[in-house]
Known about the structure:
Layout: E1 2-6, E2 9-13, E3 22-23, H1 26-43, H2 47-61, H3 66-73, H4 77-81, H5 84-95, E4 99-101, E5 104-109, H6 112-115, E6 118-122, E7 141-146
Helix pairs in contact: 1-2, 1-5, 2-3
Amino acid sequence: ISLGLVGSEMCIRDSSKTAELEFNNETSEQLFNSYLKVKDALVASNLKEANSGAKELKEVLGEDLKTVTIIQEAKTLEEARSQMPRLSDEIEELVSSSITSGAIYKQYCPMALNNTGGYWLSSEEKILNPYFGDKMLKCGKIDSKIQ
């Protein structure tokens, strides 16, 4: 962390932040951003936003992935959350080779899905668990870094 003076304002720069995530094509960027909308909606326990994010993800994909359809049509948070491991794997496969800078953090919660465990992807190191929302927001760990 470094301090700097801009005009008469004191600024704090956090140099521990990772470089901004960038992709070599717009489709990968849109896919990952749509995935993050679904993930962030589940972190916030907002089913309506998760449904909406899945709809957007389907539009970007231009095809129908079963996991996306299930999340889009889910009537409960549990139903939507049950698809996160598979959706995360599918998105990882689609975007991992397109990263040109920054990193995606593959995160894991051993207690997700009735203690069978579950993965999710994040653009930051901070753990925000989509499987439990605010009940266990910080439960999890970084499993790997995709660059």
